[in-house]
Amino acid sequence: MVDMSTATHVGESQVLGTISTTLVEGNFEGKTVGEKLRVSTMQDRIWKMLDNSDAFIALPGGIGTLEENFQITSWAQLNIRHIPIGQLNVDGFFNKLLSSLDQVGEENFIPHSTRQIFISASTVEEMIDKLEDFVYEPDSVPVQIDWSKGAAVKSANWICHSICNISCLLVSLTLIFFIFVIF
Questions:
Q1: Which is it for strands 118-121 and 35-39: parallel, antiparallel or unpaired?
Q2: Which side of the chain, N or C, has fewer Cβ within a 10 Å radius?
Q3: Any idea what the Cα angle at residue 34 is, between residues 32 and 37, rounded to 5°?
Q4: Region at 54 (left for phi over 0; alpha for psi -120 to 50; beta for the rest)
Q5: Alpha-helical runs (H) found in the chain
Q6: Long-range contacts (CB closer than 8 Å, 24 or more residues apart) made by 22-31
Q7: What is the DSSP letter of 30?
């Protein structure tokens, strides 16, 4: 992360390092380049990152990376915030994940618009081009929820369907991950 933030800073782009106080107290805080923001929880960290971002780019990583990817995706599906989620697919690292998402979409566990949020590119230049061209096109749903006003107009069927889709996706991906690790 230090290398990425340094390169971003040197390229004259804004860098905002967001870290929870729990990670700071556990000595997980590294060198910060640019502005630093401490928040109370990991959930607050993601909210702050989303509030200050135009896109989310995942580099090859572990469970935390996957968790943030899917949390941001579920928020997009619930109409909370729509930003593209880029997978910098270095040496094909995300190929199996993207194939799994394709299958989950083909099996109708996630709508087409949710799958399209995940953008993959093998180079930074290609990623930037794809992110700049990204246009969110939501699938039609019975009721959209306006989270910006605080009082949501809810449709129980739509909420249950969305939560079920995300839960099934996470279970599927967890199983795929464990099968991949075992074999």
A1: unpaired
A2: C
A3: 70
A4: alpha
A5: 2-10, 21-25, 42-51, 63-77, 95-106, 112-117, 124-133, 156-182
A6: 30/1, 30/2, 31/2
A7: -
d(CA 121, CA 126): 6
Please give the structure tokens belonging to residue 177.
Answer: 């991950």
What is the C-alpha to C-alpha distance for residues 173 and 81, in angstroms, rounded to an integer? 23
Six-digit token string for 91: 């040496």
| Spatial contact of 74 and 56, defined as CB atoms under 8 Å apart | no
Query: What is the amino acid identity at position 44?
Result: D
The runs of H, that is alpha helices, within 38-94 are 42-51, 63-77
91-139 tens-digit pLDDT: 999 999 999 999 998 998 888 888 888 899 999 899 989 988 988 777 6
Q: How far is 83 from 47, CA to CA, in rounded Å?
A: 13
Residue 48 CA to residue 32 CA, distance in Å, equals 16
pTM for the model stands at: 0.65
- Closest by Cα among 72, 70, 79 to 158: 79
At 70, which amino acid appears?
A: F
- Assigned token pair, 138: 């939501």
